[in-house]
Amino acid sequence: VQLVESGGGLVQDGGSLRLSCAASGRGISSITAMGWYRQAPGKLRELVASITSDGTTNYADAVKGRFTVSRDNAKNTVYLQMNAPKPEDTAVYYCHADITITTIGDNSYLEVWGQGALDTVSS
């Protein structure tokens, strides 16, 4: 099971950027929460936004009103639309998911992280 991120890169202050993250692998039966974390240089990793399978969202105060998290359950994919990003949003962004793997007679619960991608907002 893996999470593959795409869509990051360099964006100008006030522009927009959309991140995508798709979960893939054998036996995925459900994904409860999916979301995005980030880690800036010299700082701890922090939650940016998350979304449950029923669409309940949670945002860090720093991104409320600017970033939007969404997901496509049929594609096991989560998105982060970053509008009006600021230089302080520059960080490595990591996708995260809580995944249930079902095999014959057994369920396994995994916490999976994406590989991370640097998103830079230039002023």
Would you mind describing this structure in some detail?
By secondary structure, this protein is mainly beta. It contains no helices and eleven strands. It has strands at residues 2-6, 10-12, 16-24, 28-39, 46-51, 57-59, 67-72, 77-83, 91-103, 106-113, 117-122. Strands 2, 4, 5, 6, 9, 10 and 11 form a seven-stranded mixed beta sheet that branches. The protein has a four-stranded antiparallel beta sheet with strand order 1-3-8-7, with no helix packed on it. It starts with a strand and ends with a strand. The mean pLDDT is 94.
What Rg do the Cα atoms give? 15 Å
Shape descriptor reads elongated
Query: What class would the helix/strand composition place it in?
Result: mainly beta
Beta-strand content bin? over 45%
Q: Would you report the number of β strands?
A: 11
Helical amount among residues, as a percent range? under 10%
Tell me about the largest β-sheet: 7 strands, mixed
Task: Report the uncertain regions.
Answer: none
Question: Termini separation (Å)?
Answer: 37 Å
Number of helices: 0
Query: What's the SSE pattern?
Result: EEEEEEEEEEE
Question: What's the average pLDDT?
Answer: 94
